Amino acid sequence: MITVKAPGKLYIAGEYAVVEPGYEAIVVAVDQFVTVSIEQAQKFGTINSKQYQETSVFWQRKGNQLVIDNRDNPFEYILSSIKYTEEYALEKRHELALFDLTVNSQLDSDDGKKYGLGSSAAVTVATVRALSEFYQLHLSAEEIFKLAAISHFKVQNNGSFGDLAASVYGGWIAYQSPDRQWLTNMLASRPLVEVIQLPWPQLKVEPLQFPPDLNLLIGWSGKPASTPILVDQIATSRAHAAQHYQEFLHASRQCLQMMITGFKQQNSQVIKQQLTVNRQLLRDLANFSGVTIETKKLTQLCEIALHHGAAAKSSGAGGGDCGIAVINADPKVRQALLADWQQHQIQPLNFNVYSLQKD
Ligand code: MEV
């Protein structure tokens, strides 16, 4: 039996801008995992998951039609990962086999809580990794990222792949998303193996070090949100607010460049300042697009954190899920902030950063 795991992630800064090719975000892997096991089967294969039986389904109304949105359904990502990894294996002349695949997710807990920590990315990466071992494909980290990105893209179609990068490479990362139009054209015209081997325009993954005098705290707002739906809503609003959107992109790029420099110079003050700037940029984006990014609960989470001297913001697409606080490493302040969150029904998630070197 083959068993592999892939970590979840948090966005630190650069959300929404990073969906555009060439724009950066900072992401970090956390020590909560999706585990995938594969065992050879006879006659028919199975896909099994205790947690995913309780999967939430998002739906929208288009005119009078009820439209189910399957882009948050983990089984879609598993099936897509199987499809593309097997297509790759076939092009490399490997023989395919039947298997039982079992998923266990700490990111979607047994009591049905969905934290929004990149579960769809982690399950995609874990499935590609497990199949790479099963078929002995000997894929490098970059090849796993690219195969996972293609599998994910074919389901979600509007994401930056930043959460996949965190899940593949671990640790703190400055990430820049590739050109998805280029990728679409390549997938339509070239064999998969060739697309994986080509350099992808604009894609950049650079490891960062978090200054040791800072702590990262995570709070869960208690409400799940759908990233693909929120990204679609922002994309739709872009047409009516093109000028504002360009200004947002420009300011986000500047903010991220300063923040990444802050990481490189281990300047905690700059990192905290730019986190606050990024929060404001996302609030501006929410205002001119009419999309709720920082919910009332997330605003409360940020205000409590600010009161304790932290810099804070929503993490990821918002609309619920998690918020983060970056605070000077002081156990007393940390305890006081976490207790304050708890008192206001914000659940502290006691997760640590996950680096691959720890394995
Ligand atoms: C969601 O976790 C972060 C967004 O930037 C979307 C993406 O990068 O795919 C909003």
From TrEMBL:
What EC number(s) would the UniProt record show? 2.7.4.2
Domain of life per record: Bacteria
Q: Which UniProt keywords apply?
A: ATP-binding, Kinase, Nucleotide-binding, Transferase
Pfam families documented for this protein? GHMP_kinases_C (PF08544), GHMP_kinases_N (PF00288)
Which class of enzymes does this protein belong to?
Answer: transferase
Pathway(s) this gene product operates in, as recorded in its UniProt entry: Isoprenoid biosynthesis; isopentenyl diphosphate biosynthesis via mevalonate pathway; isopentenyl diphosphate from (R)-mevalonate: step 2/3
Q: Which residue intervals define the domain GHMP kinase C-terminal in the entry?
A: 279-336
A Gene Ontology BP annotation from the UniProt entry:
isopentenyl diphosphate biosynthetic process, mevalonate pathway
Keyword Nucleotide-binding tagged: yes
Q: Where is the GHMP kinase N-terminal domain?
A: 90-171
One molecular function GO term is: ATP binding
Question: What PANTHER family does its record include?
Answer: PHOSPHOMEVALONATE KINASE, PTHR31814
Put simply, this protein is called phosphomevalonate kinase
